[in-house]
Every structure is written in C-alpha cells, then in structure tokens.
Amino acid sequence: MSGIIWVIIVGFVAGIIARFLSPGPNNPSGFILTTVLGIAGAFLATFVGQAIGHYGPEQGAGFITATIGAVVVLFIWNRLVAARVIPDQGNR
What we know:
By secondary structure, the chain is mainly alpha-helical. The chain has one domain. The protein is built from three helices and no strands. The radius of gyration is 14 Å and the shape is globular. The protein starts with a helix and ends in a 10-residue tail after the last helix. Belongs to the UPF0410 family. InterPro entries: Transgly_assoc (IPR007341).
C-alpha cells in the first residue's frame, strides 16, 4: 500500500515540476491531471530505463527521470492538443 502512495507522491511532484519547466496554455490543469501526468512520466521513464538496461526489473524511476518522463508526456500532450486530437481544456 505504501508503494502506491509513494508513486502518487513522486508522480505529483514530477508533474508539478514538469508543468513549471514547460509552461504553456495547453497544460493539463488540476490535481488529478497533474498527478496522472507525473505518474505517466514515471512509468515512461521506468520503461525506457529498464529497456536500455539502466534499471533492473524491480527498480523504478527516481524524481529526476520521472520529471524528464513527465516533460516528454507533457510535450506529447501539447502536440495532441495542437493537432486537435484532444480538446484544449483552456478554450471552452
């Protein structure tokens, strides 16, 4: 149970840092979307790190790599909004 809480905390912090590093009008807003952004970044960083052999099978991404992963996920989010694949939450 504490592992899930830790992932949520790391994801939320990584999501906040990624939103500060990549400001823009198309950023997902709110606590839940920021947390999901960070968690998705942490999973992306863990997957890539394990695929290239940087992390072992039971290891996960830390704050820095989770933040880098969250910035990548945020970039993909911004490109999807720009291509109008997903709606822009700021222009309703």
